[in-house]
Amino acid sequence: MTFLLSQIDNVGRSVARNLEYTARVLLMVYLSFRASFVDQAQGFRTIFSVVSMQIYFTGLQALPLISVLALGSGGVVILQSSTNLNLLGGTEMIGKLLVMIIVREVGPLLTALVVIARSGTAVASEVGNMGANREIEALESMGINPLSFIVFPRIVGGVLSVVGLAVYFVVISLLGGYFLTRLMHNLPFWFYLDSLTRSVAFEDIWLFLLKNTFSGTIIFVVSCYQGLSVKRSPTEVPIATTQAVVKSIIYVVVFNLMVTTLFYLSQLRKLGVL
Amino acid sequence: MSDILSLRFENLTFAYPNEAPLFESASFEFPMNEIVWILSENGAGRSTLLQLLAVLLSPQRGAFLINEQDTTPMTFEEFLPYRLNIGYGFDLGGVIHNRTMLENLMLPLIYHEVLPYPDAKKRAERYMDRMGILRYKDLRPSLVPGGVRKVICLIRALILHPQVLLLDDPTVGLGFESGLRFFDLVSDLRAAGNLRHVFLSSFDEKFMLNMQFRQIAIDDKRIHHFPGDIAPGVAS
Prior knowledge:
The complex is a heterodimer. By secondary structure, chain A is mainly alpha-helical. Chain A has one domain. Chain A contains nine helices and no strands. Chain A has helices at residues 2-38, 44-58, 63-88, 94-132, 135-141, 146-180, 189-199, 202-228, 236-270. The two termini of chain A are 39 Å apart. Chain B is α/β, with parallel strands linked by helices. In chain B, the strands form two sheets. Chain B has a six-stranded mixed β-sheet with strand order 6-7-8-3-9-10, with helices on both faces. Chain B has helices spanning 46-53, 76-83, 101-111, 117-130, 146-158, 176-191, 205-208; strands at 7-14, 23-29, 35-39, 61-66, 69-70, 86-89, 164-168, 197-201, 214-219, 222-225. In chain B, helix 3 packs across helix 4 and helix 3 (101-111) runs parallel beside helix 5. The A-B interface holds A 35, 38-39, 41-43, 45-46, 126, 129-130, 133-135, 137-145, 149 and B 54, 56, 76-77, 80, 83-84, 86-88, 90, 92-98, 107-108, 110-113, 153, 156-157, 160.
């Protein structure tokens, strides 16, 4: 009985900790947006320059890595699908299958993982170092709200970059992957393109945007929060960075899984299965 | 910017987390229109006092009043008009590493749209030139000597021409000549009607002899006027 009670106690504590963490993070997001929009004295031009720098670092500089991953994953999925659908006699299904795999699932998830690895770590360590070097205090002393100067532009720039990168991933994956594996399958291009365009529905676009927008938000909010948790010592920076990566991966994967589950449940309901 | 006419602690208590209080029920009316030298033993709270005056720290109990207005419940935005009239020079750190030295100086001017870009650049370059560090203007902090970073931090504190200037150990990491140049600049700005209330902490007695100041001391978690009051100095 004692063991059971202590287990319940542990679960309760963990839930409370996570709820508190979520509340703190949401408060930070609210305050950063409020500081950026409510206070007219804040220099929007300076904030905009930080947003554009964030898009450059997170979006543009990630293009080569995203290209390699998109070509690789797209090529593999196209090759596997075309071969197996050919054997089963359902080649016209290839568009639907690729939309399901690449647009709905692999694109958003792989893009998010790449951004966590490249930019989540960079943001957490940069903001953490700013705290350790007293740069955040310095901003405050200059009357610059760190939430509007550091957090807001990173979230906005980060989300725009993630959505942009995910669109790029899907395009490169579906088109680049096709041409990369062209010699290994016998799918005519116009047939392939027609199958793809007929398979993309409004709900796919909606699901794609929802997943990427929220994944981007999660990554940059968590990374900024972990970075800001560094107080004075540089030894806190690697801890904050690791925490940012671990938490971002967990939240992004859980979020993607939840959305996918809800989406398929709604599909089943629409078909009358549920 | 709001004029700052008085600074006062009322029963103020401050402690860092899990540490003994540095100030306990401290009440003090700070002298105004002076250069005030804050004295204390090491670790007695000189830097903390300056950070409390800059509202970079909040007391656990009591109040810090500017113009008899309690600053403790103010939001960042509500305090902003006062904040722009308070310059703070760090003892160590505080330089923004992803900006050049010139951009560091121009940041508050541009962000708060105090001056248009060309004028902000002109003012920042003029002060850099006066301190003899203009040749470092396009370099990032990691590429310049520590003394230059310190100078940037000091002149950034007065770039907005605030009424209150708070300097935490301004001569640490600074050569004697740079220190004198900086205080020449402070004196000129004071003569022009800016930097009316200067508060500084320093162990550098040789350096302090170059100016006329009033002394206050932190002792037994309280702030006191130091006996002897205005110390003899060379220049005000």
